[in-house]
Each structure stands twice: as structure tokens, then as C-alpha cells.
Design goal:
Layout: E1 2-6, E2 20-24, E3 27-34, H1 48-65, E4 73-80, H2 83-88, H3 90-101, E5 107-112, E6 123-131
Parallel strand pairs: 4-5
Antiparallel strand pairs: 1-2, 3-6, 4-6
Helix pairs in contact: 1-3
Amino acid sequence: MSLERVNPSELSPATGFSHAVTATGGRLVFLAGQTALDTDGKVTGATLAEQFELALTNLLTALRHAGGTPADLARVTVYATDVADYREQAPQLGGIWRRLAGRDYPAMAVIGAVRLWDEECLVELDGVAVLD
């Protein structure tokens, strides 16, 4: 299996994401939306950064148990209840991403959501990975 990250020079610089990711061979893993739920199912974290870190940790835990690593992520979608706040905190969120998932960025999108399943949640992440 191989993933190739494609970032054409004709597009704006890809900072913290890839414009396209091609996958050859392998097995697809579809990762359900993960929020800042702890192991008891309680929302944890009052800030976007705290919730983002736990949501990403939960996504990577599901991926690891499916046999993958962060480098196997081909696509991640972020749902944020306040996109302006997400943009403002992007440098800090990017640091969390790099610490937990590294620098092999998947194709990504940030979608504004009026609310998430649990009203206290500020962010949710889902994704698709390609494994050997």
C-alpha cells in the first residue's frame, strides 16, 4: 500500500493539510466521528484545544486498534461549532496535530456545524485511512 500526498504548485501552499492524497492497494478503514468523550462517555475539556486533543487522541486510538498509524490517514474532516475560533487557534491546534499525528498530513476539511451530538462538544473529527 502506498499513499502519495499531492500538493500542486498551482494551488495555495498546503499548510497543515494535503490538497489530495492518492492511495494504491490496501484496506480502507472508515473512522467514526470522535469528540472529547472520555472512557466514561463524558465530555472532557472546556476549551477548543483541550477538546481537539482528546478528539484526535480518540480518532488515533480507533485507528491504532484497526491496525493503522497516523501516516495511514488519507482523509480527515473536522466539524467545528465555531470556525472563527478554530481559525484563530489553528497554530495551537496544528501543534497538537504534529505532536500526536506527525507531519504526514491527510486531505482535510473544516466544516462549520451548528452543534454536535453532545451539546458541550466544540469539535469532532472523522476520517478514512488506507492500511497495507
